[in-house]
Design goal:
Blueprint: H1 2-16, H2 21-30, H3 35-53, E1 59-62, H4 79-89, H5 98-111, E2 120-127, H6 134-147, E3 152-157, H7 161-176, E4 183-185, E5 210-215, H8 219-231, E6 241-246, H9 258-267, E7 271-278, E8 299-302, E9 309-310, H10 312-316, E10 336-338, H11 341-347, H12 364-383, E11 390-395, H13 400-405, H14 407-419, H15 424-440, H16 453-466, E12 468-472, E13 488-493, E14 506-511, H17 518-523, E15 529-530, E16 539-542, H18 544-569, E17 609-611, E18 614-616, H19 619-639, E19 642-646, E20 651-658, H20 659-668, H21 680-694, E21 699-705, E22 715-719, E23 722-725, E24 731-732, E25 739-741, H22 765-775, E26 780-787, E27 801-802, E28 810-816, H23 825-829
Parallel strand pairs: 2-7, 2-8, 3-5, 3-6, 4-5, 6-7, 10-16, 11-13, 11-14, 12-13, 14-16, 21-26
Antiparallel strand pairs: 1-8, 9-15, 17-28, 18-25, 19-20, 20-21, 22-23, 24-27, 26-28
Helix pairs in contact: 1-2, 1-3, 5-6, 8-9, 12-16, 19-20
Amino acid sequence: MADQIDDQYEVFKMLLDSTTPADAVKQLSILGVGEATIQQIVERHEQQMIRIREMDEPRSVVMDNRDTWYAGPRPGDKCWPAVVDILHAQGWEAVPSISDLNDCSTRIVSLLSHPKEKSFSTRGLVVGYVQSGKTTNFTAVMAKAADRGYKLFIVLAGIHNGLRRQTQARLIQQLVEPNPSRWTQITDLDRDFRPTANPASFFGKANKTHVLCVVKKNAPVLRKLTKWLENASGYLIDCPALIIDDEADQATVATKSINPLIRQILDRLPKSAYVGYTASPFANLLIDPSVKDLYPEHFIVSLPKPSGHFGTEVLFGRYALDGEDPSEVDDGFDMIRIIPDKDVEFVRPKTKADVDGFAPELTQTLTSALQYFWMTTAARRVRGSGNPHSTMLIHTSVRTSVHNSFRGPLENFRSELAMNLYDPNIRDDLKFLWDSETKRVLAEDFRESPVSFDQLLLELPGVLADSRVVMDNSESIDRLDYENGPVVAVVVGGNTLSRGLTLEGLSVSYFVRAVSAYDTLLQMGRWFGYRNGYADLPRIWMTAEIEDWFRHLATVETEMRRDIDIYLTENKSPREFAVRIRTHPALRVTAAAKMKDAVVAASAYGGLRIQTHYFHTKSDWLLANQRATSQLVVDALRSGQRTEAHPNKGRYIFHNVASDFVLRFLRDYQFHERSLECDSKLIVDYIEKRIRVAGSLRQWNVAIVGRPVGDPDENFEFTEGVAVRRISRARMRTSEANFADIKTLMSRRDAVVDINDADVEDWEEKKIVAERAKRLPNTGLVVLYPIDKASRPSKGREEFRLALDAEEHVIGVGLVFPRPGERDSEVEGEVKYISADLSGVEREEEDYSVLEAEDSE
């Protein structure tokens, strides 16, 4: 009996190749299979679908009641096995693994509509990481969709020819060449879409091949494609189509030309699945889901962070999120080198008026970066493993005239170094640079073999001889070409290098380009990706301000992905998806046009913990905050119903302090302007409304957290009889001169400092939240931290931290808000848009003129 069930289940699976699960059940009945057997077959199929739906990775948010039909590859498949063979030949299995790729692509295909449905229009979004293998993922999705009957494949490959050609080459290699008789290409390496005669011939029943079309997001090209599809409309009724939108946040959202054209293409296809791929989904998730657009209403998939991937958090570290223990949040690798602000004017025009005739000067930081790049390339040749290509990126401006002005100085510097390589002074300088860099980042920490200066010196003349200077911009004809042997290149570019295009073997970046949006900044991080064989060697030179932006952006990314996980546990659908995206005082989330439907930042703080980590270091500012804090402590002593004094533990807790005193403190205390989440006006407005509407937050607990009292010279006295020893919080190494970023202030246990329980220090985050809600449902907490002005980094953290070096002792503040109750809903529902005044700030945006340009490819 079991064998019979197995045989009939195989028949059922074969039926699924040509029909939907519901129709396959009907056909089993027609074939005379008994109801009991059919029920067992359906249950077995459902068990498989549950496995797919409940995969730990990738995480996904899915529309309610969406059918899952794809259970994974089958023995008769042709396209997916060919992709696997190619990846094996390329050395896959370690980073990242084929099994992970198989799981992720299976999950995404399972969320597409079955190709045999009568009609469908699917909208989905896949969120990956910059340079993390998104192209490989959608290639796998295309292969599996082709194996199950999808016919037409349209890939929207960015806005520049370079990325379109690179994508076409990858798809030819992995899809077309292994199965040439199964594919028809409408585009090729050298040609974007050109209308062909008789388009209907590609989609008639006699043509069994899959149709591949890789196009730029260029208005003239997309208009031609739309008209071509319209001419074949009679044959598209039974043509399941998969549209992959690579870099889906670029040009797709809120553009007057491209967005309507993509929707017109979808309207021409009765059976279409649109899947956007992006590493910066801010714009896509800010589309109004109630209007007819490209909002991912059916599914949002968050790809797992790949093993061995250099991402934002790995390189820059991040700030602790609500509920995280700051000690468990990494500061990132010591691979960032700071470009002094005074250097920027030598490599980038200060204003538009300075562009004409701009001549760059090779500053000390730029010459060090160049020297290190050539030595890194030589060291990789000594190792003889990993990516054969080696690239350095110089990205200072969007303007092509600025790019071109670098060619002469760079080529002259390379020639002079090659000519004087054996000058003792030059060699000493190179050796000092190499030794200092390899001491700061140890090869052994990345399981790589150390390379001495003497070893790499033998390879250095050949590296310099092979090295080219390449201008890669919309006007240049000398482009990167990785297809004809190993490349050693110093690449100067702008927008053409900012989206999707992979810089093979990138090891050094020199970056001063200023932008005003998260998504643009994130996409410019070409240094993200895999560094197999040289994971210890990458370095990035950038200004302290830009490094701070990236650290903040790493926090935004992590928080956004955590919100996806939260929505999974709450069974939310994509239409209810409302990712909270943090704001930054100098950065918009995305371009203003893309945020027209957005609610960007909330003034509702219910259930949140916020803390100060930016501080000015000048005495006037610091002394004013000391006075505001001392006044709060005096008020707390007078009005608090109970005081717990634990100077031997470095703790004071004042219970049931009236909200008026806390509000006065929040008005007087000066939060640093970069601490946008600590906006005193928004916080005060929120507290006052919550008191007025819901009656909560009338009472607060105020805590002082320091170290046990000891040497009087190390104590900080808030008022007579209230003193603790100062704590130490060193600044991040990249903090600017007049302010400090300490990164983290509060620990997890500080959020329950006002709860007296024997095992409170062992509570995990869920317990902390639950106990505060039960014991202090309407009471807020203010935690005050006296920070020593000299705070030095702890042992082992000197590579990441510097002494605080403030003129006076610093007062840090943490705020813990109770979770909102039913009566607080009106307050929590009120939101405000928070933006920054960018007037007077020179920022270069992406150039979208290419969207309307007549195609030259």
